[in-house]
Give the backbone structure.
Amino acid sequence: MPPMPRQRGVGGALLQNPALAARVRRAYNVGMFDFDMTPDRAGTGSLKWDRYKGRDVIPLWVADMDFRSPPAVIEALLARAEHGVFGYTIPHDEPVQEVRAYLKRRHGIEARAEWLVWLPGLVPALNLLCRAFGSPGDAVMTCTPVYPPFLSAPVFQERKRIAVPLRLDGEVWQFDWDAMEKAVSPETRLFILCHPHNPVGRVWPRAELERLLAFCERHNLILVSDEIHCDLILDDVPWTPALALGERAAARAITLHAPSKTYNLPGLACAYAVIPDDGLRTTFLRACRGIITEINAFGYAGCAAAYRHGEPWRTALLDYLRANRNLVYSFIREHIPAIRLAPMEATYLAWLDMRELKLDHPHRFFEEAGVGLSNGVDFGAPGFLRLNFGCPRARLLTALERMAIAVMRP
Ligand SMILES: Cc1ncc(COP(=O)(O)O)c(C=O)c1O
């Protein structure tokens, strides 16, 4: 087993506690960063697995991974549990400083503590943003295919939804600028960007972001950039966060973040928005009043530990995910070439174009073959399916084999 890294903070104190460190090591039993061995999630209330409870269907749908979180996160949660008092918890120094250090390190942003708005998740943030700006009947724009809450939030909050399809230019997903210009209306208040993009896996280049910022300025839109997947970039492509575009961006951009996708913590319900502009932040906070209260004490502990100590684990994870992605590419090209798959630069989500297979119900077809995927209909793209490859490779291979056998069946 590789040696446990030395750590500081709450987690670090625990590593000085041999009994607790041994417990964490035992919990891993096969090595610290072993992504091939994952615990059985039955009986843990797993959204992903319980959908197919009692059925032989491999769940490769909702975006959580089957891997254990980094040891430092588990250790920090154990330390928090051992304290034993779980009172209301405010954004305190440890998570706030870790997030600020992370934003500086990863995004080059010197965020003031007051720019951070802590949230129990980004789905509530998307909804509250739609509600905070403008009035019922105003519009919110995004580009499809996209993570389904981008499409439901405007509707839930009594806004018009303007969904402009992305364009597949050869093998590269692109904004359709002409279509966006035609679709935008004077009532449009927000543009919601997914960066990197779920589900197409695109990391938007700086030039495209600059053009999007200019588009938002021209039409007086607030740019909401959901950057939850930004630490899952698999290719050697530059990462430009929206707020790195300078003062013009700081005046109209709100970025959304969480450690939950990268470190597999969505059940800890801890996320945050970064809002440099005082006016935008005040309006957003007003929409949160009475709805967003204190967030989870364990969420703060997991978040701080992940950012502070999680880098060796994240690096190993990216290697594992890259190999899984390459398996998806090569298996599909070789055995199910009718499925089209554009190269994806980021996330553990593959976006599969099933249209050539001419299936009436692609989602149901593969479910009946024993593989549970996400339905493209929910992303605004019928005929597509999304496959989550954040799972042990052997399980991924079994799922791909099931899919190939189903497609070959006469
Ligand atoms: C782009 C994007 N935003 C937000 C979320 C969900 O965020 P949360 O679990 O914090 O509500 C997801 C989950 O898959 C996502 O892909």
Remarks:
- Residues 311-335 form the longest helix (25 residues).
